[in-house]
Write the structure tokens for this entry.
Amino acid sequence: MPESGKKEKDGHHHHRLSFPVLHLGGSKSSREPPQHPHASLDWRIESPPAMMHGDPETSTGALVSGQMVLKVKDIPLEVESFDAKLYIHVTHRKPFQGHCTDCANQRTELKSWTFLSEPTTLTPRTHEFPFSVLLEGHLPASTDNSLISVQYEFVAEAKPNRGSTLKLARTIDVKRALNVPELPHHSIRVFPPTNIAASVHYPQVIHPIGGNKLELRLDGIVKHNVDVKSVEYWKLKRLTWKIEEILSTVAPACEKHAPKLTTTTEEQPGQPPKKGVKRTVERVIGSADLHNGWKADYSPDGKIEAEIEYHCDPALKPSCNLKSKDGTEITHQLVVEMVVVQEYAPTNNLKHVTPTGVARILRMHFGVVLTERPGLGVSWDNEAPPIYQDVPPSPPCYAPPPPASPPALAPSPPTYTSSEIRYDSMEELMLGSGGERSSVENNNPSSGPSSAATSIRHSLGEHP
Ligand SMILES: [Zn+2]
């Protein structure tokens, strides 16, 4: 594959063309062109849904093939020309220059077809014209979020010698299934200055729909202070998880708004300043706040065990991980926060448990990859869908990323933090809790002789 592409730089040319307004998520134009009295134009996709398998560096892409269906109803129709084009259309929701259509829209032609190049008389019947395109593996999947939308727009036109032009405008939904090991990742970490150690198993790959299980075990929650004849406990009072989505884009400037070449640029004298501005948005696409649901054992070798179901909220329309050469990147991380409260009891009276007034927030960040399920689909080069015309190879319309780019879309390694908090009331720690405060740990026969209720009754300012 040649390294150079031929991305169309003259955006103005295309903006003079009249493109139908397309639904952002749909596949049909919102304004159907007026019907021709004697003919209609449609398409029929024969290939499976367009799914890229693997990352942009290694994916063999997705093949889309089908038939243009031109129905001539009653009388012969003379068609002067019949062609189609496929564009990748990137829309920046927060463009370089606000309200500038040219800054906001980048439309690049990926492929064009000429079905009829000279006047042809079509008899009254259904005429089919096969077409196909290989969407190269480095192309981004379709996405639609608060910063950017990536759409694949297919536009076909048949011009009869009489009557209105037959038009068809559709979008192709392109998805990507990243090959990330489905085996759970295992991570162990101690939270100094405590002896608490967290052992976590979690899947590094998650999907827009469906639950995921995180297995958590906390050790080192019971400490015997032989000198002062007391036992210290760290009790888990609250656990929250959230899936964070980090979107970042580089909104490019159109020719009109591109910063001019200056010789006073500090960083790179004589070089043109960057013709784009970075945009970043973070949001939570799934979360829960738990006050019970774990097993706690406060015996001498005690531990806390929890199985947490975490998932994206489909109503928030999560965006899959994405990395494209124009600077767009979408990543995700799972953040787990635990509030643990320190309590103590004299060795000779373990029932007399007293809070020390110290609590800690234990925070864990796990990089996760949100991607489509590969499902039963296999890459186009491993099966045999109908292939028409010159596929492969397809013309290098959209430049592939440089081969030296770092491995994309790998989840970041987990990180942990622990911070101490002083609290005046248990309510403060449990802020956001609703309903009765109770915990499975209180009902666990193997748990130590204490309960949340007991802790609250004691003077919270008291220290051992
Ligand atoms: Zn502009």
